[in-house]
Fold:
Amino acid sequence: MSVIESVNSETEERMGKTVENLKKEFSRIRTGRATPSLLEGITVEYYGTPMPVNQVATITIPEARLILVQPWEKNMLGPIEKAIQASNLGLNPMNDGNIIRLPIPSLTEERRKELYKNCKKASEDSKVAIRNIRRDSNEKLKKAEKDKEITQDEQKIGLDEIQELTDRFIKAIDEQLTIKEKEIMEI
Structure:
């Protein structure tokens, strides 16, 4: 594998991870619609070990605005309920002794705008990360040319390929933001 191919594949992998992280972050943002990903990142103490909620309970979505959390052990009801309340999701769990119901309230216009602003910031942060990856890769190519590992022409080709990757991943971030904006602004 040549220096250029190596730098390109590493760059593409790092940029791809940045976009994936943004998608995960977006999936945790509440849009007024029930989705199991809202509970990702919430952990509960299970026999002294922090565990994700989805590993101690079954999470189902019986309707568009309701999440049901059914613990595999009844003694986990309280800790799961407390973890959801402490998560800052703005959800109010209702525990009936067997199952936890999480009704998803409609979003106010003000809250929608705030969520979109948060999404926009997250996408901008991801774009900065992409540009930083581009800068690192460009520096590797320039160093390789300086160390006579590649020619000036090969360096130019490599820099152009890195820019194409950058443009492609920035466009992917913009597409993710557009999709999330539609979800948030949907009534």
Remarks:
- Helices lie at 3-27, 77-86, 109-146, 152-185.
- The chain has four helices and six strands.
- Strands lie at 43-46, 49-52, 57-63, 66-71, 94-95, 100-103.
